[in-house]
Design brief:
Layout: H1 28-43, H2 45-53, H3 63-84
């Protein structure tokens, strides 16, 4: 089976990611604390070693970076859905 690039789609890039969210209205101090602890855990050498063994590039970010990523992905996939004529029901 040819790759997307071999099929004439040189700009085709799809990546997966995972993120954690908190309920709307969570106090900023709690978000900051959780973000710091999650990033600290993700940076731990044993966690990084396990992730690499699974072929995962694991890294943390900030709440702002996560919001921006989500907004970009929503816009990207909305455009794909519209161009493909997929019904939004």
């Amino acid at each position: 089976m040819p790759t997307a690039q071999e099929s004439g789609f040189p700009q085709y890039v799809v990546t997966s990611w995972n993120g954690l969210t908190a309920r709307a209205g969570t106090p900023p101090a709690i978000i900051k604390l959780l973000n710091g602890e999650i990033n600290r855990a993700l940076a731990a050498p044993d966690v990084q070693e396990k992730a690499r063994g699974l072929g995962i590039d694991m890294r943390g970010s900030t709440p702002e970076e996560m919001q921006a990523r989500l907004a970009r992905d929503i816009a990207k996939w909305r455009d794909v859905i519209d161009k493909a004529g997929i019904p939004k029901e």
